[in-house]
Amino acid sequence: METRIIDIHCKQCGAPARYDIIRQEYRCGYCGGITGLEDAVREKKGFRKMQGTRLQREVKAFSLVKTSCTGCGAEVVFAESEALSGCPFCGRNLVRSEYLNTRGLPESIIPFAVTEEEAKERLEAWCRENKGKREASHLMPLIGELRGFYLPYELVRGPVHMKVSRMDGGGVFPCEGFMNGAFVNRSRQLDNLLLDGMEPFDPEKMVPFEFSYAAGQRVKISDVSDKELEERVGTEMENECTPAVRKTLETKAVQVRADVGSAVRLPVLLPVYYICRGDVMAAVNGQTGKVSVRAEKVSHYYFLPWWFKAILATAVVCAALFLCLWHGGMGVSGSLIISGMFAIVFLIIMLCLYSDTEKNSFSVEAGYKIFTSGSGDRRGRKEPGEGAVPERETLQPVFLQNIDGEMRPVALRFTTPGRVLKLVLLSVTAMFLPVIAALLLNGFDFGRLQLGGSAVWFCIAVPIVPVYVIKFGIVELYEHPLVYTIAEDGTKKRYKKRPSFRFSGRTILTILRVLFVPPLCFAVWFGIISFVVMVLLTSGAIE
Ligand SMILES: [Zn+2]
Ligand SMILES: [Zn+2]
Questions:
Q1: H helices of 86-158, where?
Q2: Which of 87, 286, 390, 539 is the most exposed place for a label (fewest CB within 10 A)?
Q3: What is the dihedral of CA 142, 143, 149, 153, to 10 degrees?
Q4: pLDDT tens track for 449-460
């Protein structure tokens, strides 16, 4: 059986094991043996240690030199016979030294599958296809300078424990994910987005590092501190998991906190053709040939604060309403009054609606656009006409809930049609409560109905009910989703928590206090009497 570096192997029989996201352990498809998360991490540590010892022994047989850049600090290792004048990443002077220490050298590598000639052709093809872009015209004469490098990365594969929530509040939900091999860049000098642009790489093609791979190639040494690497891994994992979480939580403004402590991590060298000359920056994936080019000019993105958007939306809608009324034959003052009144209600609603967006201040963010060949994203989609990276099975994140003292996988549903209908019915009832009571009183005699009797109620309910529905009704939907437990065979069953509310002595006491202890009881009785009068007026019982 072919063993691949990225596989986790069964503790009992050594066959590749698959991750069981529900039980959070690796399970052998061959003998059924279970391999824990820590065993998996230990297996790879063992592999790295053996490889490290072997490399340290073998390095003496190769005449390698190391150069350190006096400007950006990049360190590159290559065969002594090769020449390298000037830092390939910033162009400044290099200091040479003999290379005998293999520390900082990854134990795994994905070898080049695209030759330098092919990479140049790919880049030329990109330039021809993007003739209109200034990047293409600047890049074309420099293509001869394209050079291959093995760049240091960190492969992260394994379980991701997440805590996810909406940015505007609601519940925090525990969620389990599995990262099926993500690469995190370990170079400080290189543009992260440019490198992201030419991904994906296929981690299944990873092999143990041999010095023969370094022959005739330049190997860049990692220069990111452990702390910075931790941060990069965390951010990368959160970015990778966010799309699936967004779908479940039904908003873009989600917060994902990821813990990748039990994932397997392997430093690895990836094959990349790279060119950097001032503003001109391009990379070609040495495994698939995908091209990534950085824009020369910075693009600016503008963000508006939420309250500004609410005011803007109100202004636009009310201006339109005013024009409609005015054109419809209403006088200027009449149209102004109606659209002005509407504006107050609408503004309150809009303020509530927009207050859950993530950007809360005016800001301008700058960034470089990245142009890539093909439309592949980072999750292993096939590139038409490119060295294809096979589609890998990815595990969807699974939400967990404490059910009767045990963490179990669940499906969460927030805004289902039934729940939305319930919310609408409730708000309609609240809005027309005295009318409904009056209809019950006069035996549904619509002819005798006096809507004017409930005018006071409408004045209060019309602005308050929509605000209440948007602010509290929707938050309630998001805080207490419908929970479905998932059985072994995949069937879902609604789980209902036993109601904790009981009509206790304390509740009765509170009701009595509200009704009979002054001064609160005066307000309550005034409210009750007003409501009864309103119902009687509306029903037409009193004129
Ligand atoms: Zn086994
Ligand atoms: Zn440099």
A1: 116-129, 134-139
A2: 390
A3: 90
A4: 777 778 888 888
